[in-house]
Write a structure and sequence with these properties.
This protein is an alpha+beta fold. 15% of the residues lie in helices and 27% in strands. It is built from 12 helices and 31 strands. It has a 6-stranded mixed beta sheet, with helices on one face. Strands 3-6-7-9-8 form a 5-stranded mixed barrel. About 1% of the residues have low confidence.
Length: 606
Amino acid sequence: MDAVGSTQTVTAFREGAGLVFPTGNGNDTFVRKNSGAQDTDNNPNDFDPPPATGPPQNCGAACAAPDPCPTSPITPISDIQTLDPNSPKNGQTVKIRGIVTGVDDLYGSNFDNVFKADAGVWVQEAAHDPSHTTSEALFVSSIRRPVGTPTADVGADITLCGKIFTQFGLVELVPAGGDSPATPDAKQFDLDQAATVNSRGNPLPAAIDIDPGLAASQNASSRPYYRSLQGMRVRLADGIATGGGTTKFRDVFVRPGTGPAERLFRKNNAAATTTPWSDAPDEIGIAADGGAHNPADPRLPWRSDTQVDLDLFDVVHNVVGPLTFTFSFYEVMPQLNAPAPTIQRGPINAAYPPAAPNQPPDTLRYASFNVENYFPVGKINDGHEITGPEYAEKTDHIVKAIRSFLKEPDVIAMQEVAVFSDGANALTGLAQALGNYTPYITTNNDGRGIATGFLIKNGVTATNGRLLDADKVWTVAEKANCNLATGSAASPGKVYDRAPFALDVRKGDIAATVISNHFASQGHEDYCRIREADLLREQAATMVAAGKNVITSGDLNDFEFSDSLAHLAQGGTLTNLWNKAPAGLAYSYKFNGHLQTLDHILVSPA
């Protein structure tokens, strides 16, 4: 990458000594030597300075970017979309024509980057051919919405050329001159820059009704029925929220139809680990991107004008929009220019979770609480520096949960609280806001600062706070089994990213060692959590042998039927209290519409 700057420019932005820029009006043109081909990484050597170079020239059409497919025929979109995971046209330049049926008005993001290519428009062929077995619509990425008028392009009849990509299972067309959808901060286009707009204000293709029977009977692994509609304008007549309500990402998951009102649990089988929709292939989401108004940083809180807010067992009617594919799920994306769905409230109407019963006297109440990326003011989370108001708002939510719903437990094991070596830590401010709790936490192995710890209520004695096995490292063989990218063969790295935090507590006649845990995520191999479980079980066994009671809990990132939980309960040192929870009612987490238990409390025999 060339750097061309003046002698006044910082060294990093020039090559060599830099160019002496003219200070007066006139011919100020620099021309690269050797007919534009010379490049010795030294600006003064590579350019002829003015005035010897002559005046600037306008080369006109000769310098215009060539049309990538000037005489190409229109490619039917049904030839681009197939029932396979990838398009047969991947990497090829094609020309398509269709009607803009909707807008995706939200950038994508991960911890480090914002992906502008995730915003764009949906294009569908004007006339539907019922004989086609594949979709006649696709997503055109990198199209920015008109400022202030997010629906202005909807109904436009356009012709455009671009390259086909399949990104995370979604077939996309990137306009000529655009960047791969995986490019952070990708180039964006106005619609009339990227396409020929043949006309505007056209009627949209009629929405295709989703057939609940076909959806439920489709193959669970490939879901060909939904795949055949990818990108198409569809209508979900009815859907019931069987896996909880609207998520923090503003989407909600439903099953076609109006019932039965039965909770959708993640099943106890191997397929459920890698394909959570396998037990309910008809499950479908409702995405909020169409009315998000394109927040500059989607990692910060935002709200959409088209999001559907449901509680468990609510029924939604008449959801219309393009059918997208994101995070392994098909989702209908309602649009601002369409009638809003209607909602029929169900029997739960759970605006808040149920509160715990009042605590009987002479007992110890224990809870485990993953507060999900709880960072102190001034620290960076997901590329964003936490502000005072943001910290105060989240702290207020957690305080209300502890007081109103958990009824102020004596001991609260905390996970995903950020703490740093400079003393900054989110738990201190929470304890101050509660007023009757003392925080116990220390820095851990996690590179982002995420740690485990405790809040101890006044009246409970706590001593000897310490991390367990924080310095335990993988052997080379263990690292291979865990498929870890961290460390090296010579130095494989720590077993725990977030080592267990232990504390000795006493309330009246009740004494125990309590342990807060946060095992490796589901993104790791099962072996990682099994190894962590073995180490924790060994620690608990040593404590029990020494006459101690043990309560160990936290986000173990695995299910009650998993191998890691079996290893943790091996030998009878620890018993999982989830085994006492009522079947069909108990769960600790909701993910993509499936209820599941990732958080556990285990106790020693006494």
